[in-house]
Automatic annotation (TrEMBL):
GO molecular function: oxidoreductase activity, acting on the CH-OH group of donors, NAD or NADP as acceptor; zinc ion binding
TM annotation in the entry: none
Zinc keyword on record: yes
GO biological process: lignin biosynthetic process
Cofactors (names): Zn(2+)
Record-linked InterPro entries: ADH-like_C (IPR013149), ADH-like_N (IPR013154), ADH_Zn_CS (IPR002328), CAD-like (IPR047109), ER (IPR020843), GroES-like_sf (IPR011032), NAD(P)-bd_dom_sf (IPR036291)
Name of the protein in its database record: Enoyl reductase (ER) domain-containing protein
Name of a matching Pfam family: ADH_zinc_N
PROSITE patterns recorded: ADH_ZINC
Naturally occurring in which organism (per UniProt): Crotalaria pallida
Signal sequence, renumbered to the chain: none
Top-level taxon of origin: Eukaryota
Family assignment from sequence similarity: Belongs to the zinc-containing alcohol dehydrogenase family.
Amino acid sequence: MAQITPNHTLAVYGWAALDSSGKIVPYTFKRRENGVKDVTIKILYCGICHTDLHFARNDWGNTTYPVVPGHEITGVVTKVGSDVKGFKEGDRVGVGYLAASCLHCEYCKTDQENYCEKLQSTSNGVFWDGSITYGGYSKLLVADYRYVVHIPENLPMDAAAPLLCAGITVFNPLKDHGLVTSPGKKIGVVGLGGLGHVAVKFAKAFGHHVTVISTSPSKEAEAKQRLGAHDFILSSNVNQMQAAVRSLDFILDTVSGEHALLPILELLKVKGTLFIVGAPDKPFELPAFPLIFGKRSVKGGIIGGIKETQEMLDYCGKHNITCDIELITPDRVNEAMERLDKNDVRYRFVIDIASNSNNHPFI
Ligand SMILES: NC(=O)c1ccc[n+]([C@@H]2O[C@H](COP(=O)([O-])OP(=O)(O)OC[C@H]3O[C@@H](n4cnc5c(N)ncnc54)[C@H](O)[C@@H]3O)[C@@H](O)[C@H]2O)c1
Ligand SMILES: [Zn+2]
Ligand SMILES: [Zn+2]
């Protein structure tokens, strides 16, 4: 069992949405004191995942207000509990979507704690002690060390932050399907946003032929020139879609909004897999024919386990993989959320939490 620490005495300055307008405003709240298995982290950067926008606006109907979003966190350890192993003051660390899990179910025991039924999320969750979890749009985090990872020394803390969610979310399905170590497959990435652009980088680094499938014609040049994608399919262009039928081994769908699966499924070869990580608020229509005539699979997954998150970060350190980010000060979060909603970001906003744009009374 993770510890229970009811003493919420630490005043922390952060930013929260107070209602479904999603508007983010300064918000001061309390965190638990650093427990024996906790580390306290001075947050330096936090990525703006599309999930933050879903939470802020209650798109999925599960938001508890006020919500302090943020689960792509990098920072420096400032305090270490007596039972903590592997971390010391001054360490460069990261925290993603996972705040805690039961630690003894079959998934926790096999490094798949992201599938633990008792999973506690870093933001908009309910912790063991009944408190609401407040995320990384804040100056300081107290985290159970078993859900904290090390950021490789050579990676910049700002451009590494989105790896904590976007990175692991696309790394995991590629690894699960043997695609880290068997190059030469044809991989499709649907949606070229925060998750999608990291997926292109990983799939390329693993030696695959990468096709971006997007609704935005303007993304063709950038997908190819900036990210090195080999091919681009404009999903609204019937001829382009038709020409690519049965051409891909594996497709990662990172799209946040409603869209049809049928044309995407048809791009898969026989026995190909469509892996869904995007989370539109409306259910998909799943047609039977492209499945039965192509023996295709449709799967989904949430982030990845902690061990694999560290492995992914180490891989990124070794191969110098970071995210393409637009760094903003906290006072620009609302503008960033609006732009994220309109798909106007290349490819991830990251908040410079430690910047001095806001005067605040607490650390
Ligand atoms: N499964 C997981 O563990 C996990 C982890 C992180 C994020 N997510 C979810 O993944 C999705 C993507 O997250 P992100 O941070 O990359 O978002 P993003 O906004 O950066 O990227 C989403 C992409 O989808 C495209 N898009 C949006 N609506 C579309 C539509 N109707 N048709 C076609 N394209 C459309 C956008 O143009 C953009 O390129 C979100 O729903 C998010 O909640 C899931
Ligand atoms: Zn996320
Ligand atoms: Zn568990």
